[in-house]
Design goal:
By secondary structure, this protein is mostly helical. It has a two-stranded antiparallel sheet with strand order 1-2.
């Protein structure tokens, strides 16, 4: 997953991050991170909104994706990890 963050001068706030989801695994990680975030401050909120935007773009460009794919990607990683052991 690509992440872009534009940092402002020390006296200014940074722009919110921009995420680009490139794979099903990225999609699974992004949706998992969204569920894990609890908004506590401005930067966490901006990360949450940027991740939600990236997931929305992914889902628009990849019809039929959704929570079921996340489980499939997690299962694939688990199977892949257990084969290496």
């Amino acid at each position: 997953m690509k992440t872009t963050i534009e940092h402002g001068p020390e006296s200014c706030r940074s722009d919110p991050p921009t995420f680009t989801i490139e794979t099903v695994e990225d999609y699974a990680l992004a949706t998992h991170r969204i569920k894990a975030l609890s908004v506590q401050d401005g930067s966490t909120y901006r990360e949450l909104m940027a991740l939600k935007d990236a997931v929305r773009v992914w889902e628009l460009n990849h019809p039929g994706t959704g929570p079921d794919l996340q489980s499939d990607a997690e299962n694939a990683r688990t199977v892949s990890s257990s084969r290496r052991d």
